[in-house]
Design a protein that fits this description.
By secondary structure, this protein is mainly α. Helix 7 runs parallel beside helix 12, helix 9 crosses helix 10 and helix 11 packs antiparallel against helix 12. The longest helix has 31 residues. The chain has one domain. The chain starts with 7 loop residues before the first helix and ends in a 7-residue tail after the last helix. The relative contact order is 0.13. It has twelve helices and no strands. 70% of the residues lie in helices and 0% in strands.
Length: 302
């Protein structure tokens, strides 16, 4: 990934926008200053930052290359706000999301995520991007892996082997954490087996949605103005910070999600496709959603 060094001003502005539009300001305000931030307040701030940067591209010529990224980022943040804070409040959607059935509520949640993803794809098409431009193709699943010393990846290795090993090792880590944290009784695990079709469908959808929305689409509009390597770091940072309030909670969650975002986005750049990113992410979601299904069962009940 030996790309020319990007111009400093666009790189600086892109990093500022990514960090300020992420969950970082909310995390700092809530965790350090004890200030509660509503979804609407976060949306107003994030959209304001992006709009100011867009205005700057009309004034400073060196920033014009960032315009596609800023437009797409604006689409992402505004569609998320509309879908997750307006559409989900409609009576039929609230009933769907609050349905006591795990199958119904999980697929309702994934339908919201899919709407955001489809909006992003539509925006990319309107920007005259082809599917391969934003990695919405299988790609070369046996493409060479650029050496990563600290992971023990040596020259000559390929994604068909490295991707399979990553899937196994990351899945083992995810599964170990879930088992240690949850320790579900065997009888509850057996009772959750009927939820398996919904778990698999939800995992497939969620992996697709997150990889397209938060990685593939943003990479496609960042790689040109800031370089492939910097785009990789930005996507990983945005994805990782977004998991601060996830599982595991806090800085550990940010680091783990950031690493996963980095390696999966890297797989897209090196294979020129979505397959390994989706496949590895899919298996993590299978384990996570399986434990969510187990948690939806009341011990001794139905």
């Amino acid at each position: 990934m030996n790309t020319p060094r990007p111009p400093k001003l666009p790189l600086l502005v892109a990093w500022i926008v990514v960090l300020l539009a992420s969950w970082l300001p909310v995390i700092l305000l809530q965790e350090i200053f004890g200030q509660t931030v509503s979804p609407d307040q976060r949306a107003i701030f994030s959209l304001g930052v992006i709009l100011i940067a867009l205005l700057a591209t009309l004034i400073w010529q060196p920033l014009r290359g960032l315009r596609p990224f800023l437009i797409l980022f604006l689409v992402l943040m505004s569609s998320q706000w509309l879908v997750y804070n307006r559409l989900d409040q409609l009576p039929f959607y609230r009933a769907w999301l609050r349905n006591p059935s795990f199958n119904v509520s999980m697929l309702a949640e994934q339908s919201l995520n899919l709407i955001v993803t489809l909006v992003m794809i539509a925006a990319l098409v309107l920007m005259k991007k082809k599917r391969r431009d934003f990695y919405l193709v299988r790609g070369d699943t046996a493409a060479p892996v650029e050496p990563i010393r600290w992971l023990g990846v040596k020259p000559g290795e390929r994604w068909n082997k490295f991707g399979a090993w990553l899937t196994v090792f990351i899945s083992l880590g995810t599964l170990t954490f879930l088992v240690v944290a949850g320790r579900p009784p065997l009888d509850i695990v057996i009772k959750a087996l009927p939820f398996l079709p919904a778990v698999l469908l939800a995992a497939a959808l969620n992996a697709f949605n997150e990889e397209v929305t938060y990685k593939a689409s943003l990479l496609s509009v960042l790689e040109g103005p800031v370089s492939e390597r910097q785009a990789l770091y930005m996507v990983a940072a945005f994805f990782g910070i977004g998991h601060y309030y996830g599982v595991p909670y806090g800085v550990v969650g940010v680091v783990l999600a950031g690493f996963l975002g980095w390696i999966l986005a890297r797989s897209m750049q090196e294979t020129k496709g979505l397959f390994w990113a989706w496949f590895i992410h899919f298996w993590q979601d299978v384990w996570i959603f399986s434990f969510m299904a187990i948690g939806a069962i009341i011990p001794g009940g139905g």
